Every structure is written in structure tokens, then in C-alpha cells.
Amino acid sequence: MKIEQIYTGCIAHSAYYLESNGEAAIFDPLREVQPYIEKAQKDGASIKYIFETHFHADFVSGHLDLAKKTGATIVYGPTAKPQFEAVIATDNQEFKVGLYTVRAIHTPGHTMESTSYLLIDENGKEYGLISGDTLFIGDVGRPDLAQHVISELTPELLASHLYDSLRNKIMPLSDDIIVYPNHGAGSACGKNMSKETTDTLGNQKRTNYALNPSLSREEFTKQLLDGQRNPPAYFPENVLLNIRGYDSIDTVMKRGLKPLTISAFETLANETDALLLDTRDPEIFSQAFIPNSINIGIDGSFAMWAGALIPGVKHPILLITEAGKEEETITRLARVGYDNVLGYLQGSFDAWQQSGKEIDRASRITAKELESMMESKPIIIDVRNETEFDAEHINGAINVPLDYLNYNLNSFPKEQPFIIHCAGGYRSMIAASILKARGWENFADVKGGFKAIAETSVPKTNFVCQSTKASV
User: Fold this and answer.
1) Which of 26, 141, 231, 279 could be bridged to 298 by S-S, CB 3.0 to 4.6 A?
2) Going edge to edge, which strands form the sheet with 100-106?
3) pLDDT tens-place string over residues 276-291
């Protein structure tokens, strides 16, 4: 028997591969399914089932492509209503994978169809729990996502269901079973997830606030809902793609992996209103870029920021990437439903620059330069999230979290110079590129972000001043 966690850091996602006696199952697969197929082939196993814990909001699952390519059966939990062929399991229904048994346990709360899968070995011992977004390490799934698709499912109602699921379905299980959640730290599907990606249920009972047996339903609901940030705008669109279906990843790759000459690139940009997405390193981007292009570096939390900031998953996209990064970029966009890549600039930015075409630049300063400017009391805008800002920030700084930037453009003055920064420079360059594309010019970004600023004498505080918070 083999149970393997396949963790993808850029979207903090865990898929699972179960193999026993020549049969395999995949739990919550990513969009690109070939690695799962190859893993099963290497083990001499056939993929029998694709188990989905729920209709995901933060990524598009690979269930349809994987079923088509392997003949595996897609399984959802009770109440799920997919618009494609699938087995809808009843509560406690069991499925055989080789010598292993997989028991579907309906655990509504994150969503109504949310289902955990109990893994039982050939001796009848309960070994592990694929918990989806019901139970994370250190947290539980947020209950405020389903209402964006089904309005009557209020966060309070789902929180109440989750309270019952945890206490009646999960907490009675043995302390020694291993919890295998769908996400880790960094995911927007929870607010307090651990960096650890597995744990024993017994340890979670001792350390996870949501499993505190003394919590009343009201206290649980309050703690769960308190401090939840607005979900990224692409979440409802991903839910619908997972329910209704989507283009094959092969079709998406064929459409997007189209090299474009400079002339063809310009023509498509003008005719389609496509977003120019430059995925190069922020430092390299800052030195020279195509006017109106947006920088989201491929080497950061690329997919999540693309989903949070690109308007609508159907929006046409033209890529500027480092040579050889085109396929990776299209794949990572497809993971969050952005399938409408029209092609990429052949020869990357170098070809554009060598042709003599117009370029733009982003102004950057060092933390030491900012330190020397502080006596003049510059306007400083911090694009980190609220928790980071509250922990410590520059005295008098204004907090406009990057994911709310498009809703708070009036916080950025056009007639006065200002400074922006994030934690290390990745997010602030995204912000800088968006501002430049929207017509802002008189500002600079801090290289190295707050990490570099912390090493200077720039006055800082951890006092939360509500007057310096932008509306979110």
C-alpha cells in the first residue's frame, strides 16, 4: 500500500495518490493530470477512482481530463450535483482500492457537499483521513465561500453544519489516524493554517482551536468567522467550472503555446483588449517592460495573485515570459481557470527591446534612500495584508492590501509623490505595474520591501491606527 501527498506550493494545494495491489485512486487532482498517470504506470497500477472532497473554489480540478484519459470513476459526496457523469456517494459508502477501503464520510460545512474520505487498510485498521477543506492542520475550512454561488447558504448556517461535522463525524475517530488536508499555509481557504501539511488527529484535537470540545456552537461560529478576509474574486468562477466542466488542458495548452511575432503580438493586444502579463522577475521587470503590461512573477505565489487581480477567468491574456517558461506559465494559469491565453511574445522582452519599440520603467529606491527621506514625511503606502501591517509597520503608513488595490485606487495620489512597499518586493512590483498601467507616474517602490526597511532606523510601530487603513 502507498499513500502519497503531492503538494504544490504555489497554490498551497495537496492532492493524494493511493495505490494498493495494482489499483490506484487520486484525491483532488490538479488540472495537469499526466504526472498522476505516469505515477500509476510506474507502479504498474490502473487508476480506478478520482475522489473529490468538494467543488473547489481556489483551483480547477483535473477530474474530467483524468477520467477521460484513464476511464476512472469520479466520486463526489452526498448532495453534489455535477453536470457530468459521476458517482454520488451516500454517507459511509465504501469503495475498494486494491486491498484498501475508502469510506466516504459526509462532512458539510465548508460547502454542503464536502466529504472526507477515511482510509482503512486490509486489516480493517483506520489509517488516515483525506479531510479536504473540512479540517486543516491548525484550522478548518472557511464557511463563507458557497454563498457566492448559492445565496441562501449563509456563513452562519455553514459554520453550524461544520460544527456538527467536526464533533459528530471527525472527532470520534481514533487519535492515531493521520489527517491529510487539501491545503496548507498560504491558501485563502482558511485563515490560520499551519506550515505542516499532515498531522495526527490526536494532536489536532489538542492544538486546533476548532476542535476544542468546550466550544459552544456560538463561540465556534464567532471564532471561525472573525477576521475572515473577502475571498478572491475568481473563487465563484472556479466553483462553476468544477461543477459544469471546462476545456481539456490539452486544448488550453495548444491554444496558449503559440509564439507570436512582435507585429502579431501588437495586433492581438489592440484587437482583443488582452491583458499583457509579464511573468519575469520583479527586479528585471522594473528595469524595462512593455508599456501597460502587468508584472506577476512566476517565481512567487503566481496563480493566486493572477486569480486575485486579473478580471475574470475568460479575460484574454498575452504573455511575456522568460524563454522556456511559457508552458509552465500557461499551466499555472489554467490551475485557477485562466484558460484564454492567446499566445506569447516570441523572443520574450529582449526581442521587443531590440526592435526599438517603446519601453517603460518602474522607479525603485533602496531602504536606505527611504531612510534619508523620512524627515520630509513622504506618503508611504504598504500593500501587505492587514495581519502583516498590524504586526509592524512604518509610522504613518497607509495600508492598502494588494488584493484590494483595484477597489482603493483613490488611496494613491496622482498629484503628490508617494512610496509603496510590501514584505520583500514581489507584491509591490505587481502594484507598481498596475498603477503604471492606470496612469500613475510619480511614485517609487522600495527594493527588498519591509524586510530591508526593518534593518534601518525608519520609525516603526505595531500600533493599529484605524485612520491609516484603506477601506476593503
Assistant:
1) 279
2) 94-97, 100-106, 115-120, 126-132, 178-181, 199-200
3) 999 999 999 999 999 9
Indicate the burial class of 410 (C-beta count within 10 angstroms; 0-12, 13-18, 19 or more). Answer: exposed
Rounded CA separation 219/286 (Å) = 48
Task: Evaluate whether 131 touches 41 at the Cβ level (below 8 Å).
Answer: no
Residue 382 main-chain phi, psi, to 5 deg: -100, 115
- 418-421 and 379-382 beta bridge pairing: parallel
| Helices and strands per DSSP (H, E), number in the chain | 16, 24
Cα-based angle 27, 32, 36 (whole degrees, multiple of 5):
50
Write the Ramachandran bin of 3: left for phi over 0, alpha for psi from -120 to 50, otherwise beta.
Answer: beta
**What are 145's three cell numbers?**
465561500
The Cα 56–Cα 113 span in angstroms is: 11
Q: Between the CA of residue 244 and those of 78, 80, 241, 440, what are the distances in Å?
A: 17, 12, 5, 40
Cβ atoms of 443 and 435 within 8 Å: the answer is: yes
- What is the tens place of the pLDDT at every residue in 79-111? 999 999 999 999 999 999 999 999 999 999 999
C-alpha cell of 370?
527611504
Q: Using alpha carbons, list the distances in angstroms from residue 297 to 73, 278, 328.
A: 37, 7, 12
Rounded to 5 degrees, φ, ψ at 357 are -70, 160
